[in-house]
Each structure stands twice: as C-alpha cells, then as structure tokens.
Amino acid sequence: MSPLSLEDQVIVALRRITRAIDLHSRGLMQEIGLTAPQLASLQTIARMQPITVGALAKSIHLSQATLTGILSRLESRNLVSRGRRGQDKRTVVVELTEEGQAMIKNAPSLLQDRFHRELLLLQEWEQTQMLSTLQRIASMMDAEDIDASPVLSAGEVSTPAEHDARYLNE
Fold first, then answer.
1. Bond before 3 cis per omega within 30 degrees
2. Distance in angstroms (rounded) separating the CA atoms of residues 148 and 170
3. Distance, C-alpha 9 to centroid of its chain
4. Residue 6 CB coordination number (10 Å)
5. CATH classification of 6-167 is 1.10.10.10, yes or no?
6. Cα angle, residue 77 at apex, residues 74 and 81 outer, rounded to 5°
7. Where is the HTH marR-type domain (predicted)?
8. What is the distance between the alpha carbons of residues 33 and 88, in angstroms, rounded to a whole number?
9. pLDDT tens profile 97-122
10. What 3-state DSSP class applies to 93?
C-alpha cells in the first residue's frame, strides 16, 4: 500500500475533524438529549442569568431567530423559563429552571471547551498560524459566508438564510 499524497493527508485530517465533531454531537444527543447549541445556551444562561434574549444571542454568537427556536425547545423540556421583567415589557429574560440547573451539573463538557484548553497551551504564534490556516481552508472550500457560531456541532448543510430557518425548530 502506497503512502498517501500530501493532498490526501490534508483531506484525511479534515475528515477526522469533521468526524470528531459529528461523533461528539451524536454523543451529546444520546447522553443528555441536547444539541451542542442547546447546551451552550444553557451554560451561558447559568453563568449570566437572568439574561435577555438579545444579550444571550450576542454572547453565543447566534441570531435571535435561531436562539428563539433553541429556547422554545429548552422551555418545552422545562429547562429554562422566559418572562418579561422590569418596566420595559418588551424585554424578555431567560433563566434556568431547577431541571435546567440539574442538567448543567450533570452535562458533559462541550467539544470546543476541550479544544479551547488545548489551544491555550500553544504559543501565540502557533495559535495565529492555526487561525490563518483554518481561515484559508474555509476560503478554499467557499465557506467564508456560511453562518457559524463558536459552537462545534454537526448539522445539515444550509445556506445562511436556511440556517436560521432550520434551527427555529431545534
């Protein structure tokens, strides 16, 4: 068996990354019944509650439309509660329920948390080089305009407009 060409080695490395994300996402769903964006939302709410929907969306880099769908799913499982507080009744705040707090205590860590810890162990020049390389790869794959948050999760392929519509039901 001949050794892989450099091009094939790059593809294999990309495939391993994709598989790691997919396997982690499936594991989360099997273990706790949540997607990575749902768990990231719960973790952020736990740290910042009560938090407005707008502030939560900014914090986890998701559109409010996408987040509204995520919150609806979490609320249907009684993990979060939404309500209006203060004088401005247009402002919706989110808090964890007791069930949500229990879920956070027992939840596994997100893949990006482990990656972040490992990334911080690298020298700054290595981190910068990695970012540059990954940005170049995204460009080479025409993925520059794909909507993405800093949550490593698997999902269906979509255009940016389809992204928000798809996750409304998440």
1. no
2. 15
3. 27
4. 8
5. yes
6. 60
7. 7-139
8. 35
9. 999 999 999 888 888 888 999 999 99
10. strand
